[in-house]
Amino acid sequence: MKVWNLIKPTQNINLPKDISPLVAGVICARNNSHILEKIEFHSPFEFIDMDKAVNRINEAMENEEKIAVYGDYDCDGITSTYIMYNYLESQEIDVVWYIPDRNEGYGLNNNAVKKLHEQDVKLIITVDNGISAHEEVEYAKTLGIDIIITDHHRPGNKLPKAVAVINPQRRDCPSKYKELAGVGVALKLIAALMDGDCDMAMEFFGEFAAIGTIGDIVPLTGENRLIAGRGLQSITTSENLGISALLEQSGVANKTLNSVNVAFSLVPRINAAGRLGSPKQAMELFIDKEYEDAQENAARLCRLNNQRKELEETIYIEINEHINSNPNITYERVMILQGKSWHHGVIGIVAARFTEKYGKPVIIISVADDKGTASGRSVPGFDMYAALLNCKELFIKFGGHEMAAGFSIETKNIEKLHEAMNLYTYENYQIMPNLAYNIDMELSNQNITVENIEDLRLLEPFGQGNPEPLFLIRNLQLMSIIPLTNGAHTKLILKLGDISLTALYFKMNPEKFIYTQGDKVDILVTLNINEYQGTVSVNPYIKDIRSHRFAQSKFFSAQSFYERIKRKESLDPKLTAKVIPSRKDFAKIYTYIKNNNSKLSTQGLPVQDIYIGFISISSDKNENMNYCKFKIALDVLEEFELINKDENNNIKINPTSQKADLEKSEIIEYLRSK
After folding, report:
1. Local structure of 85: helix, strand or coil
2. How far is CA 165 from CA 149, 425, 566, in A?
3. Does residue 410 share a domain with residue 395?
4. pLDDT in tens, 371-380
5. How far apart are CA 174 and CA 185, in angstroms?
6. In terms of Cα–Cα distance, which of 77, 280, 39 is closest to 184?
7. Closest by alpha carbon to 354, among 406, 402, 317, 400?
8. Are residues 321 and 331 in the same domain?
9. What distance in Å separates the CA atoms of residue 348 and residue 346, rounded to the nearest whole number?
10. Are residues 122 and 244 in the same domain?
């Protein structure tokens, strides 16, 4: 469950008088009056070392030296490699490209440098990597190879001693915009080689720059917004056979493209090459000169993406089963999970899914022999990179940023990692941050008009740093619950004052929907327009739904306190006394489960949903019942085998159970001793 965070709007922002209340509300919530202003590219020569890079490349051209473009195996790295390689090739330079497979590891490696030396390469240009390649740069020097680094990842205290290090994250770099993806930095170098003309660079490579920028999930603000906006317009008209084939094979060739469908259609297929096959397969797609070859290579990426989904689901199910058997894992501040020989290419995606599910940082380690390879995903407010930096002596290699990181580790150090992470989070995060929905604006029925919603397009493109606006609508009456696509999705008819809304709740099975007709609910929605048989109407998409009387702060405080109990941390005796269930509490909860046993034992409802259902139907609304007390009551009932849980965590009444003296529960005795 996520926190609902209604952003307090900024006051005194000067806005055009003709914009709609919804656009104005979003801009004020995000304190971003510049979003409607025209964006222009800054000069690429703002970057420190850009002049050195241009001079060295021009020197290589004049001396007819062979150049290698050295990329990375993700979407950002592959698109960066393509645009740099394609530009240099267009200048009739003797140029090759090299992208390491995932099993080679991220970034420059000495074996690859040696291979390029054997091909008589004299200059290597890195794209989307290289900022930590100290040893490799020095090795290249011994072979007579110069290196130019272009990267956007966070540098360490020292920079590699390359000919040039172009990175907006450098502390001494005066460039005005710092959030470029690797492909954005590569685009700036190409623009510098074109006498500083960023617009011309976008004319040639805008579609690739947009795909790489969206794929790397960098903020779509400033120059990234310009790259994504212009590039999206050129994707469907691209003359590149590979992009055209990928559009066809992924089923979006005839659709209006935005950052969302690019992120869910093109990007995963490009990434699949680096995850399961070889990134060379994606690069070969983009340099194909024949239609048939491009179609065949695009189809191959689609097949790899399907394999990736299957592999990801297999690992996800395995971890889920492990968690169901060891539920205490979910109470840790940072969940660290490990398994044998999980595919390195998908563990990051799986980590992201569990972060979304449990609302906390997750690290997944794939172990083979005496080494583990890990990928972690975080939540806003918890710096994953800083946490790993605190125990860097445990790693063979590590890197990343606040929201995502990876490392390799000897298996003998994994237990030490658990201990170090527990200590670090205990000392620095007594209460861990929760995942949150940041809500731009609360709506009344007067705001919800087709005209207002159409105006929201002024804020596109949406993406990281500029998400699709999210709105809160309170106190609706649920009039009807309608299954769609054989129960895969749900349509809700809701009444708000004198208007009726038809809202879609994707991936919600009506049988798992805890609310019933007549309930008063609050909803979080994105707003869309539906056109059907000439009629245009408002069509909200539901992101989350709650009982109108749900007490958020009380719930999350109780959840945090319950997790402290499960971790056996120090407790406030006054608070502990308030979470010990009474005999009356046990009776109410047991009766509720018994009366709803059929639903609870088949639908796999999260305990949070069961709790909400429980407090919603009680005649006295259970004012003294908090989530921590409810969870403890379930634990005690399970301790005495009055209820049990199956392998899917479904709660069931145990029909063979005997009467029990719940006051003698080990859990209750533990709490009373605190």
Report:
1. helix
2. 5, 35, 49
3. yes
4. 999 999 999 9
5. 14
6. 77
7. 317
8. no
9. 5
10. no
Picking from 518, 547, 576, the residue at the C-terminal end of a domain is 547
Q: For residues 263 and 504, what is the distance between their CA atoms, to the nearest angstrom?
A: 22
Q: Is 142 exposed, middle or buried (0-12, 13-18, 19+ CB in 10 A)?
A: exposed
- Distance (Å, rounded) from C-alpha 611 to C-alpha 514? 10
The CATH number for 356's domain is: 3.10.310.30
Question: Can you tell me the distance from the alpha carbon of 229 to that of 210, in angstroms, rounded to the nearest whole number?
Answer: 8
Same domain? 102 vs 229: yes
Does residue 393 surpass a pLDDT of 90?
yes
**pLDDT given at position 619:** 52
Domain extent for 350 = 326-428
Do 248 and 350 share a domain, yes or no? no
Domain containing residue 535: CATH number:
2.40.50.460
Interval 354-388: pLDDT, tens: 999 999 999 999 999 999 999 999 999 999 999 99
The answer to whether residues 231 and 316 belong to one domain is: no
Q: What is the mean pLDDT of residues 598-613?
A: 78
Residue whose entry in the numeric block shows the structure tokens 């999980």 = 342
Cα(529)–Cα(540) distance, rounded to whole angstroms?
8
Verify that 495 and 363 share a domain, yes or no: no
Which amino acid, residue 562?
Answer: Y
E-assigned strand segments in 379-456: 395-400, 404-410, 436-439, 441-442
Domain boundary residue, one of 213, 235, 257: 235
The Cα 593–Cα 655 span in angstroms is 12
Nearest CA-CA partner of 337 in 312, 362, 310, 314: 362
Peptide bond into 361 cis (omega under 30): no
| 182 Cβ contact partners less than 8 Å away, ≥ 6 residues apart | 72, 76, 77, 80, 127, 128, 129, 150, 151, 152, 212, 216
Is 55 within the bounds of a domain? yes
